[in-house]
Amino acid sequence: LLAHKSAIVTGSTSGIGLGIARAFAAQGADVMLNGLGQADEIEFTRAELQREYGVKVRFHGADMRRPDQIRDMAALAATAFGQVDIVVNNAGIQHVAPVEAFPQERWDAVLAINLTAAFVLVQAVVPGMKARRFGRILNVASAHGLTASPFKSAYVAAKHGLVGLTRCVAVELAEFGITANTLCPGYVKTPLVERQIADQARAHGIAPEAVVRDVMLVHQARKEFVRVEELAALAVFLASDAASSMTATAIPMDGGWTQH
Ligand code: NAD
């Protein structure tokens, strides 16, 4: 579905981003990986994807708190692949604390990585997309882009902001063949969520098993974590020609959490 396309997927050394990068490569797209991690493990993943799917796979370690590095990554992708057709703003971090005790430094980091980085990358790739009259912008927000939970002030603010940014660029760029959509997953069992189980247990003063049952999946009617592969399939569809008229949406994939 994505032959002759190229994509940048931020935060693709782990979890949802890696699943989306893999699915794009499997559909024939060249992919720029990005994220933090051990250099040898990242190189292993990069080489494995390239070998398995026969596409170009590159890596750029841009720190999403650094606009200059984000712009450098976009420039490298354009050089390596000839163009950038698809961007997935997926990198994200979480911090869980009561609002009155929320460290300002953590607020700034959550906003920078989960929201400002997306703005910077969109700004960098849009001129090329406009010139070619094709582009796909996929922003990974969260159910927390549509609703709130306690102790996540920065994350909920950033993800609501990302939904807003997506809607704005969607209407601004619609006539140029560029779509922009937000994916709003419920809980997915990735390293980000594994770390949160312990943090949430502390914040709520309950046991880790109770966090999964009574906090994370309490509103998720299906009572199961969303799978990375389901989100990756949605991303492939949104990036494909079949989704040309689908823009400015914020799509929940949350086992019946936000829409009931
Ligand atoms: P993860 O922790 O497994 O992966 C996060 C990725 O972001 C990693 O590749 C990491 O290296 C990268 N990253 C973090 N800080 C970075 C920085 N400063 N610069 C560059 N890269 C950085 O998390 P995940 O669960 O796969 O989350 C991916 C996205 O999905 C996030 O935006 C998250 O908010 C969102 N999300 C996750 C869930 C869930 O339940 N896991 C639910 C809804 C939304």
TrEMBL record:
<dbReference type="InterPro" id="IPR011294">
    <property type="entry name" value="3-OHbutyrate_DH"/>
</dbReference>
<dbReference type="GO" id="GO:0032787">
    <property type="term" value="P:monocarboxylic acid metabolic process"/>
</dbReference>
<dbReference type="InterPro" id="IPR002347">
    <property type="entry name" value="SDR_fam"/>
</dbReference>
<dbReference type="InterPro" id="IPR036291">
    <property type="entry name" value="NAD(P)-bd_dom_sf"/>
</dbReference>
<dbReference type="Pfam" id="PF00106">
    <property type="entry name" value="adh_short"/>
</dbReference>
<protein>
    <submittedName>
        <fullName>3-hydroxybutyrate dehydrogenase</fullName>
        <ecNumber>1.1.1.30</ecNumber>
    </submittedName>
</protein>
<dbReference type="InterPro" id="IPR020904">
    <property type="entry name" value="Sc_DH/Rdtase_CS"/>
</dbReference>
<dbReference type="GO" id="GO:0003858">
    <property type="term" value="F:3-hydroxybutyrate dehydrogenase activity"/>
</dbReference>
<keyword id="KW-0560">Oxidoreductase</keyword>
<comment type="similarity">
    <text>Belongs to the short-chain dehydrogenases/reductases (SDR) family.</text>
</comment>
<dbReference type="InterPro" id="IPR050259">
    <property type="entry name" value="SDR"/>
</dbReference>
